[in-house]
Amino acid sequence: MVERLARTLSAYGIQVWLDREQLRPGERWAAAIQHAIEAGAFYIACFSTQYAMRSRTYMNEELTVAIDELRLRPTNRAWFVPVLLDDCDVPDRSIGAGETLRSLQWLKLHENWEQGVARLLAVIQPGSERIHELATELDSPSARARITALDHVATLGGQAALLAPKAMEQLEHPNQTVRRAAIDALVRVVGPTEELIRALLRLIVTRGQFAGNYVVSDEFPYDAHSAEMALAAFGEPALELLLRLAHGDSQCAGVVSGILRKERDPRAAPRLTLELGHTSPEVRASSACGLGQIFGPKGSHSLNDKLPIRSVESPHLALLQQIGAVAALTHAVRDVEPLVRVQAALALGRIGTLARAAVPELIEALSDAEADVRAAVAGALANIGAMPDEVIPKLVDLLGQEPYVATAAAVALGSLGQRALDATPLLIANANRINPYQLFQALGEIGDPRGIPVLVRGLTHAQGVFRQLAEKELQKLRASGRS
């Protein structure tokens, strides 16, 4: 039990001197023990029935040295700590001034090990007793107790580093709320270590449910979602390992792709630009998405739910130019995989006016064989601006296509303002294909009186938001004198 106590204290960063472990062959043991006792911040005397039964023992010599040292130390702080390893008595040895060892408060470690260690830590290293208590709670059969303990661990952050191994164990707990609490705690306590990155990735893969890929009847994988968000929040420090693990493992590559889509760390931008050439289409697409998140405006989630955001300037302009992100994304618009082309176009659209160099390539991509690509490209052009007049016929052609393509084309035409006056008749003719919100906005921006009947009909739309927008655009036309 003495060795167990020594190991426990050592685990909390306390330097423990134990004669049977510290004495070296040939060393004068009496002098070494005396020096250790005199230099020690505390002396823990462990008593047991076995000790009491011995008629002679070297421990008595140690006790004599320790008692002599105790007499030299101030009486207002603990130094000599008696610990009972079983149901025995503390020796009634004099320590001077009419007191004996029994005058010192002893600790009955045998009655409650965990509580006893916590009390001992409170004396030897104040504050660490809370760490020990939390370690005990993390072994509780109650999931609620474990969750509460993990919440406290998260609050302590790096101060709870000793609990990292136990917190890691909670990632295997059958209760997903415990696992989720463990993720939060570990993120705060240890940060992006390789061990944690691998563990979180393993958790996501094991759950088999990430990036919204779950059956409605299933329990939502909050733990996998938290793990994915944590890995994304780690940013550049975790990126190298994640991409390395994604190579040659399609399942892992899918998980890493979901993480890259949430990337926000500007330090990751150079690597994401490089990964536009990754062998996995999912990684290429997600790298493009990540670049759009990093360099695009905060708070914008969709390109086609509003008129252009051409005024946005990136806070990372120097980095954007340095790594050649726009050129790399422009090249990705010609990728063999439609998913990559879509994400590259969306990223360029989020970058906005800083992606002007991509406009010629995007105009060509309006003829892409995939409708999703055409819609993404039209939305991107609307946000970037700087479109030549030659783009208008291409956008008009899109008005007769799939509703979401026609809607994106309407947004782009609206961004051209009065330059797109000739497109008004076809906007009206294809009104049933275009989302009313984007249609009303486009007609208002173009400012052609021929759009007024459509806006007037919008005043009776079943949805209030559309009625309000129709009224707003009509007022804009009247104020301009074009009505």
Write a structural description.
The protein is mostly helical. It has a domain at 2-124: Toll/interleukin-1 receptor homology (TIR) domain (Rossmann fold, 3-Layer(aba) Sandwich), CATH 3.40.50. The chain has helices at 2-11, 19-22, 29-39, 49-53, 58-72, 113-124, 128-137, 143-156, 164-169, 176-189, 194-207, 222-234, 236-246, 250-260, 269-274, 281-295, 317-323, 325-332, 338-351, 359-365, 371-384, 391-398, 403-415, 424-429, 436-446, 452-458, 464-480; strands at residues 43-47, 80-84, 94-96, 99-100, 107-108. The strands form 2 sheets. The chain has a 3-stranded parallel β-sheet with strand order 1-2-5. β3 (94-96) and β4 form a beta hairpin. α7 packs antiparallel against α8 (143-156). The chain is elongated and about 110 Å long. It starts with a helix and ends with a helix. The model is unreliable at 209-218 and 299-312 (pLDDT under 50).
Range of strand content: under 5%
Output the strand order for the largest sheet: 1-2-5
Number of DSSP-assigned strands: 5
Give the CATH superfamily of one domain. Toll/interleukin-1 receptor homology (TIR) domain
How much is the radius of gyration in Å?
Answer: 35 Å
Structural class: mainly alpha
Helix fraction? 55-70%
At the fold tier of CATH, the topology name of one domain is Rossmann fold
Overall pLDDT level? 87
Largest sheet: 3 strands, parallel
Query: What is the distance, rounded to the nearest whole angstrom, between the alpha carbons of the first and last residues?
Result: 93 Å
Discrete helix count: 27
**Poorly predicted parts:** 209-218, 299-312
